[in-house]
Specification:
Number of domains: 2
Number of strands: 0
Helix content: over 70%
Structural class: mainly alpha
Radius of gyration: 19 Å
Shape: elongated
Protein name: TetR family transcriptional regulator
Largest sheet: none
Pfam family, one: TetR_C_8
CATH architecture of the largest domain: Orthogonal Bundle
CATH superfamily of the largest domain: Tetracycline Repressor, domain 2
Organism: Saccharibacillus endophyticus
Number of helices: 9
Keywords: DNA-binding
Distance between the termini: 55 Å
InterPro entries: Homeodomain-like_sf, HTH-type_Tx_Regulator, HTH_TetR, TetR_C_Firmicutes
CATH topology of the largest domain: Tetracycline Repressor, domain 2
CATH class of the largest domain: Mainly Alpha
Order of helices and strands: HHHHHHHHH
């Protein structure tokens, strides 16, 4: 990708982010996005099929950057340190994550996809011990619970430290896992 293409895509993504702060994705059209980005429609259509295509690329970019950031974390088999690093990353990029994790459109699967990626990394790096046939159910529980806690943390503007939230998420997940495992012994 050349510099001009990178700049064009960056301008479109920044324009989309500004518009998403004002309205739901379903109400954003290519014409107003191009006006916001200072580009013409033909330039937009050289790169994207529509606004949702651009949003998908933006979401994938955020997930990719999050995974890249987390891959550099030295967790040393410490789930809490890994979760805290993820939360620190969210807090450091608060405006973007506030927008993307609290977006009100029902079509967005981004929050769950992001949390699922993080949990998959924890599983790959730290080898969570869960029965294979129940793994999807357990992950659904962990993803939804963790996401709800993080969304509440964001809504409250990060008033609780990332360490406390990491400990909360880990403790609730660990307690649930311990209860599950003890019932199945």
């Amino acid at each position: 990708m050349n510099q001009r293409e990178k700049l064009t895509k960056m301008l479109l993504k920044q324009g989309l982010i500004r518009l998403l702060k004002q309205k739901n994705i379903n109400r954003i059209n290519v014409k107003e996005l191009c006006a916001e980005a200072g580009l013409n429609r033909s330039t937009f259509y050289l790169h994207y099929d529509g606004v949702f295509h651009l949003l998908e690329e933006l979401e994938q970019e955020i997930i990719g950057k999050t995974k890249e950031y987390l891959s550099k974390i030295e967790a040393d088999n410490d789930s809490i340190a890994y979760i805290r690093a993820f939360l620190d990353h969210i807090q450091k990029n608060g405006d973007l994550y506030t927008l993307m994790l609290l977006r009100s459109d029902e079509l967005s699967s981004f929050p769950k996809r992001l949390i699922n990626e993080v949990l998959n990394n924890i599983d790959n790096d730290l080898r969570l011990n869960v029965p294979e046939q129940l793994k999807d159910y357990i992950y659904a529980y962990l993803v939804n619970g963790s996401l709800s806690i993080m969304q509440e943390w964001i809504r409250r503007e990060f008033t609780v430290s990332s360490s406390e939230i990491a400990n909360l998420i880990y403790s609730l997940a660990d307690s649930s896992m311990q209860a599950f495992m003890s019932r199945n012994e």
